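During the no-cost extension, the postdoctoral fellow (Dr. R.K.) reprocessed legacy sequence entries with the updated structure-token encoder. One reprocessed record is reproduced below for audit purposes.
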Amino acid sequence: MIQSQNILIALVLATLAGLSTGIGSVIAYFIRKPRMDFLSFSLGFSSGVMIYISFVELIPLSLENVGKVWSFFAFFAGIFLIGLIDILVPEAENPHHFEELRKITDDGKDPTLLRTGIFTAFAIAIHNFPEGLAAFGAALTDVKLGVFTAAAIAMHNIPEGISVSIPIFYATGDRKKAFIWSLLSGLSEPLGAAVGFTLLLPFLTETLLASLLALVAGIMVYISLDELLPMAHRYGPGHIVILGVILGMFFIGGGLLLF
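Re-encoded structure tokens follow.
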């Protein structure tokens, strides 16, 4: 039986992961030119955490409880869900493309960037919706897994917050407006958790929850392979990326052993 305390913790973790876009906005105030090698490392680290959790923890738990068939279909349903969202979001406004960051930091203030920042905020909000469900689903099953999942999502939400706040700040000169838009773009994450919980609550059984773990794994593997790793390689040397991936896996593996 799912405890109400776990539900509350899951919602809180999804909210904190989403609000981390605001951290990116704050960081953007203090850096004139983002360090792309650090961005590359952090994205590699985040993908390492997500991939490790997916294949070492989430999928084995799902297999143990619902078997190979349900786990298989749930895993690819997660991939299909996030893939469909990726198709529906225009490539030019995809939040995982950071070419505008280089242009902005090199060219200075540009009033035409306001549209870029706002569209990026909406695109991030759409992408973060299933991520909120991922953080919620992991925490609902195992609070420890939920903490690490939310931390991994938060890590790559920080540069997304930067990608929203920098265009809006350079377009308007208003730090407060840039921060608000950045923060709002992350609120879809707890919204995704809340909507997912509301829809699933009448049917929430141990079997459905175990299937949800495989679905969450599919979402996180897709995000890692299609978005985080390609972007990490675009902005940093390959060795920095793989170092981030390995350290991310080491961090989550060691954390799961210790706690």
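Residues 104-108 have pLDDT under 50 and may be disordered. Residues 147 and 210 are 18 Å apart (CA to CA). The remaining legacy entries will be reprocessed before the final report is submitted.
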